[in-house]
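Sample entry (89 residues):
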Amino acid sequence: MDHYTITKDGRLLKREVEVPFHGMLNFYTYTDDNMWFEYEAKFTDGRLIEIRPMSIYRNGARGLREAFYPPSDPPAALETTPPSAGSRD
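Predicted structure, serialized as tokens:
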């Protein structure tokens, strides 16, 4: 696995050398308490345009994952009912 750095001004570096990346890049980081964070970053002409979280989880005992993001039960979509014939809706 390669190690990269995204600088404060949005440049992508590999071993202190700027990488002229263009496209979507998924990357991961983790903490000492086994929390894993996955992100998706968008680069245009070598500059970071957008970054967003994709998932956050903890590796538990016996390899079981405890997910924190995205939520396991997303809210249900609202159902829309077409107006009945003759109504003013």
